[in-house]
Amino acid sequence: MYSVIQAQSVAEKISRLMFDIRLSQSNAFEDWVKAMLNGFIGGDNCRDHLSWGDHEATKAVEAEKLFFGFVESYPGIDLLGRVMCELNLAGHSKNLGAFYTPYSVSKAIAQMQFHDLKLDNYPDGFSVLEPCVGAGSMALAVVETLFEKYGQAGLDKLRLTINDIDRCAVYCATIQLLKTVEVLSPTKSLREIIVYCGNALTVEHELLYHITAVPIRSTTEELNAFVEMPSFACA
Question: Among 57, 76, 97, 221, which residue's beta carbon has the most beta carbons within 10 A?
């Protein structure tokens, strides 16, 4: 069973490691999350994607093990959102008006949204947009709820588009989603994840990742181009 106390304990341990690294690396947390994401995709670890010294890299790998270990025990929980708040990196400290939705609220909303979903009505799958994803609480709840209710069939139908104005938060959401899918899914897959960084009220967004089909670690492409945000919604 999910433990708020355990989640907070792990978040505090990761935060302490990041505080230590920040003494020499000012953008430590975002760099670590991006390195962890690229390492996950590439099948290695974050150390291979960081240009830090041995001391900082060792602490980064320790934090990575704490994160992956937690998600393997509690898939679907927004751990990195807690870490961002511990480090005072969440949107409220950047004047972005961010509010990181608690797990219980996200899960309840997802359960209400999909309680009467009939997969047979969507032979080509269905799309879900989270335009202000933060570190991923709502999107994680969608993945977890669909898997609990429909198993792999639910994930095979899901086309998930996420966006946030905060690039660090987007990286957090993406690695948490990919690791959660890997833990939950027998085939380690869902239909599609499209990841943007941009202002939800404007039309210009940077497409960061487009992940399609399986396996998730070998079909990811990072792009560096501005594109128009597609008009996706629950359908």
Answer: 76
173: CB partners within 8 A, 6+ apart: 133, 134, 135, 136, 139, 140, 162, 164, 195
Q: Give the lowest-confidence range in 66-70, 146-150, 152-156, 222-226.
A: 222-226
Cα separation, 173 vs 101, whole angstroms: 13
pLDDT digits (tens, 9 = 90+) for 85-98: 888 765 445 555 55
CB neighbours of 67 closer than 8 A, spacing ≥ 6? 10, 14, 36, 79, 80, 179
Tell me, what amino acid is at 175? I
- As to burial, measured by CB atoms within 10 angstroms (0-12 exposed, 13-18 middle, 19+ buried), residue 23 is exposed
Q: Bridge-partner residues for 128, per DSSP?
A: 160
Q: Using a cut of 0.85, tell me whether the model's pTM lies above it.
A: yes
Contact 183, 72 (CB under 8 A): yes
Q: φ and ψ at 195, to 5 degrees?
A: -120, 120
Q: Which of 222, 223, 217 is nearest to 45 (CA)?
A: 217
CB 159 within 8 A of CB 124: no
pLDDT at res. 154: 95
Torsion of CA 100, 146, 176, 201, to 10 degrees: -50
Count of CB atoms within 10 A of residue 226's CB?
A: 12
Best CA proximity match to 69, nearest among 188, 179, 168:
179
Residue indicated by tokens 């879900």: 128
Rounded to the nearest integer, the mean pLDDT of the chain is 85
